[in-house]
Design a protein that fits this description.
This protein is of the alpha+beta class. Helices cover 38% and strands 10% of the residues. Helix 2 (67-80) packs antiparallel against helix 5 (130-142) and helix 5 (130-142) runs antiparallel to helix 6 (146-158). It is globular and about 50 Å long.
């Protein structure tokens, strides 16, 4: 279950101090994620709670809750550039067992449909620019998605974007 709270809400005060501090410094709300069956978490994890500042912005950092936000930005940028993000994902992770469902399958789907529509409400989508592409590569690296980061870096450079100077 995903719930949003303003910082002055009593429920928000249950978040760890470092999360409250970060959200306050960045003037953000808090997202409370309670792992449950409805969201597909394994039974042994039901009830586990995570907190994260929202909306997600590039270079926010990885706190274990931001993967979908980073992939949403990648999906949107790739679409704007005429690239097929799920296909590039499958290229990046071609080592997978072909008998298993494709890991790129979860990246498919219309941005106006769930889960992308909900993720979009908690994500600041930057304007496409060379710096925003560099930030995306940084964020992919930060969430330990280095293989897709490498593939995208090559694609962006092929399209004429200068990706040098990245700190990934």
């Amino acid at each position: 279950m995903r719930e949003f709270f303003d910082l002055n809400d009593p429920e928000a005060q249950k978040a760890p101090q470092h999360v409250l501090k970060k959200a306050g410094a960045e003037r953000k709300r808090l997202l409370k994620i309670t792992w449950d069956e409805a969201d597909g978490y394994p039974e042994h994890a039901w009830g586990y709670v995570q907190w994260s500042p929202r909306p997600f912005t590039q270079l926010q950092g990885c706190d274990g809750t931001t993967d979908e936000n980073v992939h949403l930005i990648a999906k949107i940028f790739c679409s704007q550039l005429g690239l097929d993000y799920p296909a590039l994902w499958e290229q990046a992770y071609a080592w997978r067992d072909p008998q298993e469902p494709s890991p790129g399958d979860w990246l498919r789907g219309d941005l106006n449909d769930e889960p992308w529509a909900s993720i979009r409400t908690e994500t600041v989508i930057p304007e496409l620019s060379e710096q925003a592409l560099r930030n995306l590569l940084h964020d992919l690296n930060d969430i330990n998605n280095r293989s897709i980061r490498t593939v995208l870096e090559e694609q962006f450079e092929r399209l004429g974007y200068d990706m040098s100077g990245g700190e990934w």
